[in-house]
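Teaching assistant's notes for section 4

Start the section by putting this record on the projector. Ask students to predict, before seeing the second block, whether Mevalonate kinase-like will look compact or extended. Collect guesses on the board.
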Amino acid sequence: MHNFELSAPGAICLYGDSVIMYKMTCVGASIGLYTRLTFKSLCSKSIERDFIEFEYSNINLHIRVPLMTFLAYFFHENVNRNAHVTRIRDEVESFVNSLRRMYIGMYEPNNRNHLLSLRAFFFLLVLISYTSRHDIKQSFVVKVSTELAIGQGLGSSASLAVCFAACFLRWSILQKGIAIEEWDMFGKSLIIEFAAICDSIIFNAESKLKAVVSTCGSVVAFNEGKVSRIYLNIPNMKIMLVFSNFGVRVPTVKEIQRYVLKHSITVSILNIVENISKMSVQTFNMIEKKRLPLPEMGHLFLPYYEKLSEFLRMNQEILCAIYMVHPNTKLICAIAQKYLFAGKSISINKSAFILLPPNITDEIIIQLMSEFNSFNMIAILTSLCCDGLRLTETI
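Reveal the predicted structure now:
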């Protein structure tokens, strides 16, 4: 029997914009809020009827499905294990729809979070089983919880997909009698591939930026949609996440992209953002070249913090000129500016993050959070450049 736990962080786009600039230079970073997954396979001899159990506590989803029902649907004699991912997605959607009649537990078919989470779970289970030629013959339980706000642009879907991909890949490897304590780059590349497919095909992600960042952690630079550099020697940076739940409607990704394509001036503006992203990459290159033990970098980091803050401020101001940034985001960044801090919107949501100086005092943090609370906004203190996917415990 196999039991293990793993976790993957959330991710944000620091510089550039992963919605409208996913083919240009972008810089992503992990945040210190994690999705956690526990896996446990069970001995069939002690079970009257084998099952698959999945629980996602944050959204009150808990479902148990007969294993034979799942196997009959996806592993019958004439199944095509080389089917295209879109065909597998369609089959998974059909299977999840059929669960309305046979599940045990708590599942609301009209709850979008329930529906997408189940689709992602079964999609990666089937895809990885087909790819690795892994036959599922025993009951197992997967439990998920997350510290990430769902649907707020923090990479909650990417980190969930990374956890699922890592879980099912690890299980398939363990079934072959191979034990691994941590992922090498080849293993991570497989996880990224599967997680990015899931994030795109199930959650409609525009790029694989967040799947890569959630897997690798720290800071990752992208160019033309591909990873150009992964930074491993960047110190943690304090940030404040600010969420607002009031105001006007948020434009959709497609609406923003249509707006950008319709206005020719946006091309030259995007080139400016591209240059800002490249300057941030140069700054991260300089930080990494220091190669000092991370605890010793605190007092040396301030000049780089000032550069990174200025790039953030410029990035946000220029993005405001391209498309209508949500008024709440503008308010968040304006409050940050009062304290001489830089803020940036998180994707297209009504939320933003603020980059805090390494020497900030508790008094200033409390004062800043109180000001956001006065506008009925929720502020959370966390950090950037945290560890990526990790095997947190083997039981």
